[in-house]
């Protein structure tokens, strides 16, 4: 593994894995405490429509997927605020329509020379400098939002009614969390793929939640735990020539089972 670090693609993969791990730890914590896991799953699968649009129109994958995912997140925010009783139906609709749009547009794309498996199961070894720039900018934006609005986000996450009474714009912060979740999903797709992204956004958070006393601590520990899973998964994928995304999630899943077993024994 040490000799592999001399290659630029492996250096990019390690940097991307660490950045995405901390982003996933922060946003994943907000997803879990706000009970948005199903919403995030809907956004993740709808994002495939953005991949299809990007391939068909020839625009950068990150750009097309980000725009489509953010639109899906805004629509979900509107639905959950205005049509809460029909939320499951609308999420299922967005989930299915997004996937269908992506599949049809990929079929219509001339040439069809893209490895779609890399989007379904991740391609962290294919991360380039432009991808790292996008990830770094998003990380800085998320840190700014969390630091600047921490008290409001904390209030909205744990007691939205109290937050509304004290004058916090609950709808704005709810929508903001969903939009940041959508962008996190987009970059996490590059690491573990569309199919496995929800595992990266929930497994480290579950472990951190059980050993944290504050939301700040939960976010930080989630990022550390996710980074460890990512590094170990990368080592396994390099050593045994395995798919990197699946290796990362398998490490996370085994760690979760061991953690639960230790908790039960205690």
Please outline the helices and strands:
Layout: H1 8-33, H2 37-57, H3 61-82, H4 87-108, H5 117-121, H6 129-148, H7 150-158, H8 160-165, H9 170-192, H10 197-209, H11 215-240, H12 244-265
Helix pairs in contact: 1-6, 1-9, 1-10, 1-11, 2-3, 2-4, 2-9, 2-10, 3-4, 3-9, 6-9, 10-11, 10-12, 11-12
Briefly, what is this?
With 266 residues, the chain is mostly helical. It is 81% helix and 0% strand. The chain has one domain (3-265): ABC transporter involved in vitamin B12 uptake, BtuC, CATH 1.10.3470.
Percent of sequence in beta strands: under 5%
Please give the radius of gyration in angstroms: 18 Å
Tell me what the CATH architecture is: Orthogonal Bundle
The CATH homologous superfamily name equals ABC transporter involved in vitamin B12 uptake, BtuC
Class by helix and strand content?
mainly alpha
> What is the overall pLDDT average?
88
Number of helices: 12
Please report the total strand number as a whole number. Answer: 0
String of helices and strands: HHHHHHHHHHHH
**Helix content bin:** over 70%
Number of domains: 1
CATH topology value: ABC transporter involved in vitamin B12 uptake, BtuC
What is the distance, rounded to the nearest whole angstrom, between the alpha carbons of the first and last residues? Answer: 36 Å
The profile of the biggest β sheet is: none
CATH class: Mainly Alpha
The parts where pLDDT drops under 50 for at least 5 residues are none
Gross morphology is globular
């Amino acid at each position: 593994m040490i000799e592999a670090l001399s290659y630029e693609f492996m250096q990019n993969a390690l940097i991307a894995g660490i950045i995405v791990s901390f982003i996933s730890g922060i946003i994943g914590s907000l997803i879990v405490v706000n009970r948005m896991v199903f919403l995030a799953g809907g956004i993740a699968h709808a994002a495939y429509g953005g991949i299809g649009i990007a391939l068909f129109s020839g625009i950068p994958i990150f750009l097309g997927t980000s725009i489509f995912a953010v639109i899906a997140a805004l629509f979900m925010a509107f639905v959950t605020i205005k049509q809460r009783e029909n939320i499951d139906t609308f999420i299922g609709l967005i989930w299915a329509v997004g996937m269908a749009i992506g599949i049809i547009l990929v079929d219509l794309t001339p040439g069809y020379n893209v490895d779609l498996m890399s989007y379904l199961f991740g391609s962290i070894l294919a991360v380039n400098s432009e991808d790292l720039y996008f990830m770094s900018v998003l990380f800085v934006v998320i840190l700014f939002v969390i630091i600047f609005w921490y008290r409001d986000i904390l209030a909205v996450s744990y007691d939205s009614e109290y937050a509304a009474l004290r004058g916090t714009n609950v709808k704005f912060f709810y929508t903001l969390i969903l939009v940041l979740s959508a962008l996190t999903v987009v970059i996490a797709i590059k690491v573990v793929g569309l199919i496995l992204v929800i595992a990266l956004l929930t497994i480290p958070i579950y472990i951190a939640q059980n050993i944290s006393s504050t939301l700040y601590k939960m976010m930080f520990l989630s990022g550390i735990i996710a980074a460890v899973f990512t590094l170990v998964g990368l080592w396994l994928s390099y050593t045994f020539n395995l798919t990197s995304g699946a290796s990362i999630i398998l490490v996370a899943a085994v760690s979760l089972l061991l953690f639960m077993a230790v908790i039960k024994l205690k």
